[in-house]
Specification:
alpha/beta, 1 helix
Length: about 90
């Protein structure tokens, strides 16, 4: 690593830090990168406009996450229903 702070963005349409199998995979990857000294920002699909730091990252790096709002809320339909006679 160089003397400057190196960071990595992990971006995808999954919930983070919890909620799906992909959430756990992204969490493991982020913690591994933090252990190697990188500052990781996970940009996920859920709603949440604030950058939040996760305190449990191991090693000299850090893990933070930011919701981009790509995944609809759980009770919202992804495809609107249309009636045949409308």
């Amino acid at each position: 690593m160089t003397g400057r702070s190196e960071w990595v963005a992990h971006v995808g349409p999954f919930l983070f830090p919890w909620g799906q199998a992909s959430s756990r995979r992204a969490y493991g990857i982020a913690r591994s990168l933090a252990a190697a000294g990188h500052h990781v920002v996970v940009a996920s699909g859920e709603h949440g406009p604030e950058l939040t730091r996760m305190p449990e990252a191991d090693g000299p790096g850090s893990v933070s996450y930011l919701g981009l709002g790509e995944v609809p809320p759980p009770r919202r339909r992804r495809v609107p229903l249309r009636c045949a006679g409308c």
